[in-house]
Structure formats: structure tokens, C-alpha cells
Amino acid sequence: MSTRTRRSRLLFASALAAAAALTLTACDDGQDVRDEGASAGSASVSAPTASGTSSSSSSEASGGKSGGPADGSAGGAAASSGTTGTQGASGSKGSSGTTGSKGSDGSAGSKGSSGSKGSGATSARCSVSATRTTATVVSRPLNHMLLTVTNTGSKNCDLLYYPAVRFGEAQSVPAAYEDSKPQAVVTLAPGESGYASVRLSAGDGGGSDGYTAKSLEVYFDTGANTAARPSLPAKGVYVDDSIRVSYWQSTMDDALNW
Asked: Which terminus of the chain faces fewer neighbouring Cβ atoms within 10 Å, N or C?
């Protein structure tokens, strides 16, 4: 082989070696080569899961790569699904809450004390059949008569307002002293008595239309239908148009003040 031909071959081989060296340098610099695996890993970063928690799977993806074929695929699967997380409100059945203890029906048994009468309840009105009535002419005050009603029954009774008295054939009943009205109704227990006074005529003789009455009817109040008929003195009593009565009183003295 000639020296010229040998030199030409050496030059060609050198050129091939230089070209190969340049290619290797370019590969090592990584300027024109992309790591497709890395970009695929970064694409799955912060992909939100269905439960709302983001599965940061870049590290898991890289962990999957570094393991063996089986480990890598398992790691990748875990990365792509992330932690499924607890199933929000629909996952774990919410505690249905206590159905609610039935409200107590209220003490159904304890009825209001409807049976007991109020303490303010009044007794029945005194009746002629369960009382005894007397009419007594007194010396003081002058020209006055005292009416006494005694409870002869077995229950309390009330003497209401003032007596309506009728002497002889009188057509009307006398008026009452309004100032004599007591603070409370006079209630008679069995055996107790109530009193009222009657001014028969004016003490100074100033009355008119006087007459002598020999009979008396006493209605216990103006609404009564039945009258008691106490006896009068045999000679009767003198009555004129100044006649007045007091309200029923608990004591004789209170009655005779009028």
C-alpha cells in the first residue's frame, strides 16, 4: 500500500472519531434532549382528587420509577389515584341523631284542682224555713225596734243587704241608711244571729202620715220571695213616714247605732 493511501485512510478515521466525539458531547449536555418520564411525572402534580384533596404525586411518580417493574406500577397507580380520602358527607353515614325522645306528655294525671271551691265562695242565702226572726221594741234609741234573725239550720247562711219590712197594710218598704252598710256580708253559722234596727217614727214628732201597725212582714232582702212574720206587741207600734232601716249587722250594738 502506498504512503499516500495510508495517510488518506488515517485522516478519514480521525474525522469519524471526531464526529463521534462531538455527538457524544452533545448528548451529555442535554440541551436538545427532554426527559419524557419527568414531564409525565410533573403533569400529574396537584391533580385534585374526587374527594377534594390534591394528590401531590410527583414524588410518588418518581418513587414508582426508582422501584422495580412491579413496585413502579403500584406506586404510579397510588400516585394517580391519590388517597381516595374519606368519602365526604356521603361516605360515612352521618349519625342520624337521636330520633328525639318523645316529649313528656305533661303530667296528664295531675288535673287542675277543679274540685275544690275557691275560698271566696259564699254561703247560701238565709231562708225563713231555717231561721227564727224576732222583733223587739227598745227604749234606746227612742222609737226604735230591733230585728234579730237566728240561724236554726245545720249550715252557714248569708244575710244580704238590708231587710225589707212591711208594717200593716203599707204599700212600700222603707229606705235604708246607706252609711250603715257593713264591710262584709253577714254570715251566720248554725246558732248565730244577725241584727238590723228599724226607726219607727221621728223622735221629735216631726213625721207625718203616722198610723199604728199590728202586723209585720220581714223579707231578709229586697230580692227575697218569702217573708218572716214576727209578732208585735198587742197594742201595736206607731209608724210614720220617717221610717228607716239599717243594713244587717253582726252585732246588736252596731245595729242600734242607727
From this structure: N
